[in-house]
Structures are given as structure tokens and as C-alpha cells.
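User: Need the bound-state model for 1,3-dihydroxyacetonephosphate:
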Amino acid sequence: MNHHETRIELVELAASLFQRGFSVGSAGNISVRVEGGFLMTPTNASLGRLRAERLSLLDEEFNHVDGDAPSKEVVMHRAMYQARPDTGAIVHLHSVHATALSCLADDGHPKLVPHTPYLVMRLGDNIPVVPYYKPGDPSMERDIYTASLRAKALLLGNHGSIVAGDSLVKAVDSAEELETSAQLALLLHGHATRPLSDAEIAALKA
Ligand code: 13P
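Assistant: Bound-state model below.
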């Protein structure tokens, strides 16, 4: 796929996320690896109204080389690509249920218990919560990097979520799965549930 096709795909997938309420206003950002660097959504741009020709182009060191100024979350995306070099794309959202989970007090228990197979298949069975940082604060880099070494999906304390995928489509699928799993977790909160067993989880990861 050349840059042009990737730009169109990014604009279409971002609009789809926006239209279904996974992002509002200018919240959220997306990046995708292309030959020679990365395409990224511009800062303060709505995922619902991106313009293909104005996407930010970054070089392999994440320097801005063309297009509008990139998202303020370049450092967050960079840390995840560096921890997980096979990553092809990253999606960061403030979707309601994932963000709600990210605001719960730390009670020592995981926020997302594996109840369903697709959570495990798409996101893994252990989704860390990274402490709160002001959006765009570059000092989050080490925490994002360290958490990303063990997980391809993270909850960002009092902020939202970030997921890595092999491709743009897979990263978007995973972001949707994370939001739906978070909604399910909140629906199940306070109910006696049957999480998947260790054997069932192992079979999904095999
Ligand atoms: P940008 O508009 O700079 O991408 O920031 C939006 C956001 O989601 C911050 O976390």
C-alpha cells in the first residue's frame, strides 16, 4: 500500500470511529507506519474530519517533516513503537467506558478481567494501567515504554486507552474491542461472574 492509500484508509477508519462515538471533539489520535516514517493525525484535529493531504508526516525518528503539526502525543506513540518494534499502527482514544475504567481507584485488582475470548485474542489477558500524566507530557515516555513491553493495550490513568496493532485495521479493531470490553466490565461490576479459566486463556493464546 502506498502513502496515498494509507492516508485514505486512515481518514476513513478515523471517521468511522468518530461516527460511532468512539471519539468526540478533537480527542484521540492515530499513527501508522509507512515507508520512511509514520503518518499521524494532526494536533487538535477531529477524527471525524481529517483531510488526507494534511496528515502529519514524520520521519523514522519521529521528526515532523510534512503536513500539519502532529498530535501532541508523539512521544506516547513513539514509546510504544520502540517497545514493540513489530507495531504497524497505534490508536489512542478517550472512548467513554475505557476512560471510565481508567478513572477507577487502584484496588489492587485488574480493571479488565478476561471474561471473553476476543479480549484475550486481540488485547491479551493483562492490560496495565499507566499512571496519570497531563496529555502530551513527554515525561510519560518511560512508563509507556515499560508497560508496552508486556502489553499491546494500555489504559492511561484518568485519560483513556492506547493500543498497538500490526496494521491500521488491526489497531482499530483492538481499540474497538478494548472499548467494548470496558463497557462489559462496567456492566458486570458488582455481579458474580465466571472469568475465563487459565486453561481457556492458554488455549486462546496458543
Ligand atoms: P491531539 O489533538 O494533540 O492529538 O491530542 C488529542 C488527545 O487525545 C490528547 O490525549
